[in-house]
Design goal:
By secondary structure, this protein is α+β, with helices and mostly antiparallel strands. It has a domain at 2-48 and 72-98. It is 25% helix and 34% strand. It is built from three helices and five strands; from the N terminus they run E-H-E-E-E-H-E-H. Strands 1, 2, 3, 4 and 5 form a five-stranded antiparallel β-sheet that branches. A hairpin with a 7-residue loop joins strand 3 and strand 4. It is elongated and about 45 Å long. The relative contact order is 0.34.
């Protein structure tokens, strides 16, 4: 089964709320399962995002990596990445996409 792994980074204190909001928009990949996502635990995998707002000074904020498995479909990816942009707490979230062939991995 071909799929895409969509990855973004979210402020640690907003990860659970973001997962709840984005859940209904995650395209189904695993039969009857929906709202499928994974995120790192801040206490186990610490991460810090650094960014500089326009005409500002660099800022740093604890963040977690969130991952979603979606079908390998251009329209599903376009719709889902747009929804991430709409719901994400940052103005310009980082969105990474990796294409995978699950059968070849197993």
């Amino acid at each position: 089964m071909k799929s895409r792994r969509v990855i973004t980074f979210v402020p640690a204190d907003q990860a659970a709320a973001f997962a709840a909001e984005i859940g209904e928009h995650i395209p189904h990949l695993f039969g009857n399962y929906d709202s499928v996502c994974w995120w790192s635990e801040p206490k186990m995998e610490t991460g810090t995002e650094q960014f500089r707002p326009e005409n500002g000074t660099p800022q740093q904020e604890p963040s977690v990596r969130m991952e979603f498995s979606i079908p390998d479909d251009d329209q599903a990816y376009a719709d889902f990445s747009q929804k991430i942009k709409e719901l994400h707490p940052w103005e310009q979230p980082v969105i990474l996409c990796v294409c995978m062939d699950i059968e070849k991995i197993l």
